[in-house]
# Entry
Amino acid sequence: MKKTFLKSIVTAGCLLALTCGPALASGSKAHKPSPDEAIAMLKAGNERFVTGKATQPHTTAARLALAGTEDQGDHAYATVITCSDSRVPVEILFDSGVMDLFVIRVAGNVLDVDEAGSVEYGLAHVNTPVFVVLGHTQCGAVTAVTNAVQGHGHPLERNIPPLVDNIIPAVKKAIADNPKAHGADVIPFAIVENVYQGIEDLFMKSPVSRDMVNAGSAKIVGAIYDVSNGKIEWLPEAKTTEILKKVEADPKRAMNAMAE
# Structure
């Protein structure tokens, strides 16, 4: 009975998000930006952070009180997945505050089942118009996998290999596409490829994410955060389109948007 009830709630929520848009899906009390507007807000926030002009918005007692009375879906404008690395403070580097970002953190910013489910929640239930896969320079997880793929790995605790195995295809592609790079020189290329791999993994696992992007109700973008200066490099949106097209042609992609 409980499973059936929960399924009904999830089904209704996702259908509303897809067919009615962000405002109706949540009974929104606040204006939600378009995907392009949300990306512009993220870029402007990072620019303020980098230039020392951060305003630290939505951090007052009034905002906290609002968070206690309103739904995050009425306010959050972006879902972001990034690494657990302490050098990547998401809300700070985007100069955002309470109820602004729906954040997912995991070593290596990988997108496996748990993370894909969190993204689906952020897009279809928190109604964020944009999802950002945010990699970062000097990523320890990507570095470890790169070393292992090149034959220089070291013993890892039992739960780490299955956590970071999503990074392996990214490293192999970085090596194949950059034959002149060896050793540590591969790492920056692998970090970028890992962002693209994350987008592909999400599209393979999440039909609702594909549907929302195809419908124009959400955008998915990749970016790289430089831990040494705070700047974000935004990767071409055309690459997301290319990856989506590739996945749509893959017979192994998940097809049922709703849980059974």
